[in-house]
């Protein structure tokens, strides 16, 4: 039985590799680096990191992870299957029909149902994914912003950290709302995108605290604070350039 599960895991990784690294990554790297102008700061933090970890970013378009992940996790993802990150798309929007559901599962998407809370099956699977040494990309805000402002973090990411002990790498990106504005389905070209990656955050001081919503919120708030600091850096550099 153990051998069968191991073979199944290897097969699943191979399918994910073919779908993501051969099918998706070259296309989206071309979209972001050639058809659009993407600047990445501190990419080495991702490339040198040791899984498991949670990659946390702000959320402005329906395809943020599809735009960001290919350019920050490659090239290491080409030889390290762990760097094909797991994602958390909303089940109703993305798991439509057998074909699209297959693509979602093959590209390591874990369906999350908005409004079902932090104990739904998708959250339990993410905990297992992190405990097995993988990477999860999640949005602490839980949903897209329509104003451009950072929202309040939800407790879900805090529960993932508290129950797995996984460190967090924060990220702030700017410009993806121009590549795929709300209401549009085809990405635009010729836009400028900035992706800022922050230092790894460890939450060892929270592990002995009660495994409860109050602790989860404290962790989530700290993550959102780090993303806010990255945003301030982006804006500060923009002001310096303009002056």
From TrEMBL:
Protein's cellular compartments: Membrane
GO molecular function: O-acyltransferase activity
Transmembrane segments: 14-35
Lineage: Bacteria, Pseudomonadati, Bacteria division LCP-89
Main subcellular location: membrane
Ranges where the Phospholipid/glycerol acyltransferase domain occurs: 53-176
Reaction(s) the record says it catalyses: 1'-[1,2-diacyl-sn-glycero-3-phospho],3'-[1-acyl-sn-glycero-3-phospho]-glycerol + a 1,2-diacyl-sn-glycero-3-phosphocholine = a cardiolipin + a 1-acyl-sn-glycero-3-phosphocholine
One cellular component (GO) term of this entry: membrane
Keyword hit for Hydrolase: no
Membrane topology recorded in Swiss-Prot or TrEMBL: Peripheral membrane protein
Cell membrane as UniProt keyword: no
Listed GO biological process terms: phospholipid metabolic process
Organism: candidate division LCP-89 bacterium B3_LCP
Pfam family, any one: Acyltransferase
InterPro entries associated with the record: Plipid/glycerol_acylTrfase, Tafazzin
Keyword annotations: Acyltransferase, Lipid metabolism, Membrane, Transferase, Transmembrane, Transmembrane helix
PANTHER family named among the record's database cross-references: TAFAZZIN, TAZ PROTEIN TAFAZZIN
Protein name: Phospholipid/glycerol acyltransferase domain-containing protein
